[in-house]
Structures are given as C-alpha cells and as structure tokens.
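Cross-posting from the modeling subforum.

Setting up a comparison between two proteins and wanted a second pair of eyes on the formatting. Protein 1 (sequence, then structure tokens):
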Amino acid sequence: MKYEKDRPLGRILSWMFVKELHCVAVKREHGIQYFKSLLSILILPFYNVVALARLELINRSNLEGAKLFARKLRIERRKGWKDELYKPQIPMYEQIKFTLDPTRNTARYRLVYKPVKVLDWIPLMPMEQDIHANMALWCYDSDTHEAVIGFRNNKENFLICRIVFRPERVDQKSFCPK
C-alpha cells in the first residue's frame, strides 16, 4: 500500500519499535507512519517529537538500544534539545511575497517545515506458514485499521489471538464474528 503524503494523520497515539521489520512505527489517529530507524523520527516537527518523548515506547523485543533512545529523547526534551544529534526539526520563517500585515504595515511570515521522510511502502510482518489447520478467518477492521486473524478454538467459538499491530488497547468485541 502506497503512503499518502497529503493526508493529515492527526495526533500521535503511540510508537513502537518493530524488530522483525527493523523500523519504527508511529501510530496516529488516522494512520501509521513507518520510519527506517530510530534517529529518522527526528525529522518530524518538534511538537511531534515532544509528543513521542511523553509517550512510552512499545518495545516487545526488549532491544536495549531502543530503550536507551527513548530515555535519551525524554532527557533531551527536559533539557531543551542541547545535543545536536537528538535535535528535532525547528521550522524556518519564510516571508509571504507581496503581503503586508494591515495593522503593523510589516511583511507577513509563515512557518516552513521540511517534508517528513517516511518509508514509501508499508512493510509487512513475516508470518508463520504452519497455522492453516486451525485458521478460521481473517478480517480487516476499518475502524482501527488492523488485520485480525481468527483461529478455531472449538466448533462453536472462534479464538482471536493474533492482531498484527495494536499498540493501544482496543475493545476485543469489535473483532469477534457473530
């Protein structure tokens, strides 16, 4: 699936280091952004990096480097981005041509950010191939934008045990077949 660059994605809900894909996933209200490495998320505007520093990193693989990066990000946010390596993107002021502020009779300016560099193609998680005996169905939940796989627990019930990407808690009843 191709990433839509013009679509506003909303505020940041959570972020996660995915060891299997060797990337960082940032979940927003209206989508997920994938970044190539931990340091590549610093191309986000400073207010997004501040929001990331306030949230806890989801690190299921317990990779020590990801934990240290999240801790360093929180420290730099408190200190005011002193380290140049961990400094987020600060906007530049650009004068709008041929426009004046009528109250002060001065030129008008706007804030300009560099475009965010995310992965163009969304990576897929590697999936086990020997699950077909108990697999009943799979579905895509359009509300949470998640793929869910249902397995047979017994003849009457289905067991939903594999959600591909779910960093925050979601009500399980919306996934159950009726």
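Protein 2 (same layout):
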Amino acid sequence: MSNSAKSSGPMIVSFGEMLIDFVPDVAGVSLAESHAFIKAPGGAPANVACAIAKLGSVCAFIGKVGEDEFGHMLVDILKKNGVNCDGVCFDKQARTALAFVTLKTDGQREFMFYRNPSADMLLNDSELNMGLIKQAKIFHYGSISLITEPCKTAHLAAMKAAKAAGALLSYDPNVRLPLWPSPEAAKEGIKSIWNQADFVKVSDDEVAFLTGGDPQKEEVVKSLWNDNFKLLVVTDGPKGCRYFTKSFKGRVDGFQVKTIDTTGAGDAFVGAFLQSVANDTNIFNDEKKLKEALVFANACGAISTTVKGAIPSLPDRSQAQKLLKS
C-alpha cells in the first residue's frame, strides 16, 4: 500500500536509527562460526515505523542513513512498507550502520555493531523536518540516538518540538550496552529523558538493568514510575506484559508460538500498541480498552518471532486477527 493510500488518520512519527542487521543463517552458532548471513533491515525506531504502517496506520520515520547502497535500500524498504520518508536524510561522508546479530538456539540475540561514526549518529538539528514532527499525534523514540553528538541535540530538539505541538511522547529505551561507553553511561543517558515521556515500554531485562533489582517484583518496577507518565509497560517475553497507570495496573498474557528469532518482537509490540493509542487516546483511562490494545500488541509481538529478521517478520492486521481468534 502506498503512502498516499494511507494519508488519512492520525500520524505517528518514529525517530532514530535505521541499519542493516546481518543474521546468521543458522541459530546457535557464534559470529565466528557462522558460514553465511542473511541481510535484514533493522534499527528499532525504523522497525516500529514499519510495524505501524503494516497495520494500516499512518507513520513517518525521521533519521539519517549513508548515501550508499545500503542507505538507499533501507529507504526503499520503508517506502515499500508504506512509511513516509520525508524526514529521512542521506549523509555523503558516513556509511549506513551495520549490526551482526548472533541467534542462540532459543532465538535470543547478541549484537556486534559497526558504526564509528555511522550516518545515523550525524543527524543535525538543522536537518530535522519540523513540519513533519509538528503533525505527529505520537512522537516515538529510543535511547541510541542519545549516545553521541550531533544526534543527541537533534533528538532533544525533536522531542521538544513534538511536545510543544501537543504530541504524546513514546519512549522505548531499547538498551544496547555495546553502543554506550559504559553501563553507567547507558543508565545515565537513558534516564536523562525518562520523566518527559507519556508512555514508556521496557523489557523485564531492562528493568533489571535500570534498577539493579528483580524485574518480577512490583516495587522494583514501580521505582521506574514517574507522575508525568500516562502508562508504563513491562514486557515479559512470551509470558506477555504488565501495565501500570495512575489509576490501575495488571497483566496481559502472551501467546505461545514457535519462536525462531526474537529480533523486532518488542518493536512489533510497540508499533501495534501505538497505532491503537493514536486511534483512541482515551485508552490510558479505560482499562478494558487498554487490555484489548495490549492483547493485540502481544499477538503482533508473538507473530514477529516466528520469522527471521525484524521488518520481514512484522505482521499485518489479518495475521494478528487470525492469532487472536485461534
């Protein structure tokens, strides 16, 4: 479906990195032992943008790629998935980022990155498409764009512009420790914008990292709560997710599927949830609606683990409905 076919409805803008993931053709081997790699588009904010567009909602991506074969390939993939690319810039000097992703036998991942510096790190605030940002009903971002300048300044400027224009701010820190100078720097950087979000999604592993506590204990999770939040969601992998608002809290079960690759599962979840919010912002105050949206998001996350790669595995609405009915 083309961008023009989906030009009506609330817009979600996703900001950050897009890169190439090289995934081994067999699970359970180290990078050194892998004989071949499958090239897959990746980068959490780009995955989220595609997840939203594949479900039929309006989404734009803002970020920077290299003026190279991989950069043009990535933008083509965004466009083919129905994502508005008016906010994407090309860098003539720096290359598009690469990540080698090892898959353990259970589909869990380890990363090795090539980005020193890559194009996504070099986005300047002067290159931001402010017109696009100001159209956003929801502005979504991660933390990788906070690691280095000039991208950090661009990230903060984009957040400020979106908030001033009345957008909801959505934050999935997406912890990638190998990209930060140290675990302490990661914690500090991720928390530096923590209180500005309306919605935060963290995984159970990220709760453990950010708090140093047991992510299954409610008091540990609640130590991450801020009164500016409308919603905090903790994803528990195949077990589903937990949700916390000012008025209510609970758990939504996940779906049992044959997991091949968990890459992009969190992004499929976030994209599915954000398009529900964009269509009805009252979700944060209505527990029944919130649970329905989270069940749908869990279904999308589960489906995405049954195929290798992030963007290729993202479901459309009919696939999600099929799993919900089963």
